[in-house]
Amino acid sequence: MYNYALRENAVLGTSLYANIVLAGFTILAIAFWARNLSDPRTKIITVSIMMVSVVSISSYTGLASGLTMSVLEMPEGHLADENVVENVAGSNQYIDATGVVTMWGRYLTWALSTPFILLAIGLIAGSNITKIFTAIVFDIAMCVTGLAAALTVSAHWMRWWWYLLSCAFFIVVLYILLVEWPRDAEAAGTLDIFRTLQLLTVVGWLGYPVVWALGSEGVAFLNVGQTSWLYSGLDIITKYALALILINYVVDEPETVTAGGDYGASLPGVSPGDDD
User: Fold this and answer.
1) Report field, pTM of the whole predicted structure over 0.70
2) Is 92 domain-assigned?
3) Distance between CA atoms of 256 and 254, rounded to whole angstroms?
4) Helix (H, G, I), strand (E, B) or coil at 106
5) Alpha helices in 65-190 (DSSP H)
6) How many CB atoms lie within 10 A of CB 110?
7) Do 202 and 177 meet the contact criterion of CB atoms below 8 Å apart?
8) pLDDT tens figures, 206-250
9) Strand, coil or helix: what is 263?
10) SS3 assignment, position 239
């Protein structure tokens, strides 16, 4: 799959390389801007949003190497089967397979990175642990059932059933983002920055199920290269752009996000930096 992704299909390959570069840039930018942070609550928000790019650069490297990409023979009724011919590196032999190129590594990316996005936004909103935990677990459920939709080959209708389950879990996440957290952010005094993060997240995340439905894994209106670039474009907006906006806000350590030196201490009244 390495040769197919990066040599035989240039559109697909560039969609992966672009994310590797941008994820790396975002990690370096966050590390530079956050180098003088001192407040522990601001630091955990920063580490959370940095982890999004850490997961992404690792996952997209896996996709670019062919490690987390497969050709699956779709069930009857699916329209996207294509002939994938890949040259085996260093030989004149070819792998000839009929099916759909499935980038299942993307679902691992989303399952491991989007919880950090929600954690950071929830902390910015000043929400409580119950709401943050609820958003994260339903988000993970959304991603895992999305992976099941992509990998199911036993029956065409089962793919769409997994898809609908994933969308149902997504509704819970949307409810928290659109209803619960705005109230918390208003009370915390962070409503302005929250609205920006909310807009990028809600609009961007709504694009993912649309791309799945129209893409090579859904009704196959889009081919695998087009599908990959749309996913990559959404990742650029909802991960790297959001991360840079967020770090630009917290780097000044405004009173609305700071919590004092004993925040996160394992013992009451003891600062994590204390030696006594």
Assistant:
1) yes
2) yes
3) 5
4) helix
5) 105-124, 129-151, 156-175, 181-188
6) 27
7) yes
8) 999 999 999 888 888 888 889 999 999 999 999 999 999 999 999
9) coil
10) helix
Token pair recorded at residue 18: 């672009």
Asked whether residue 102 is assigned to any structural domain, the reply reads yes
Q: Which residue has the tokens 């950071």?
A: 120
3-class DSSP assignment, residue 16: helix
**Which candidate, 231, 224, 226, places its Cα nearest to that of 99?**
224
Task: Give the pLDDT means over successive 10-residue stretches in the chain (276 positions).
Answer: 58 90 96 91 94 96 88 72 42 48 90 96 95 97 95 90 97 98 94 96 97 89 89 95 95 79 57 50
Which range marks the domain in which residue 141 is found?
2-250
30 inside domain = yes
Q: How far is residue 5 CA from its own chain's centroid?
A: 21
Per-residue tokens: 229: 């670039």
Assign residue 225 the CATH number of its domain. Answer: 1.20.1070.10
Q: How many domains does the chain have?
A: 1
For residue 271, is it within any domain? no
Q: pLDDT value at position 71?
A: 81
| Alpha-carbon span 212 to 242, nearest angstrom | 22
Q: Which two tokens stand for residue 191?
A: 């409503």
- Which string of DSSP letters, residue by residue, matches 39-98? -HHHHHHHHHHHHHHHHHHHHHHHHHTTTT-EEE-PPTT----EEEEEEPTTSS-EEEEE
Which strand ranges, in their side-by-side order, compose the sheet holding 82-87? Answer: 70-72, 94-102, 82-87
- Number of helices (H), then strands (E), belonging to the chain: the values are 10, 3
* Model confidence pLDDT, tens digit, residues 170-203: 999 999 999 999 999 999 999 999 999 999 999 9
Place of tokens 């952010």: 185
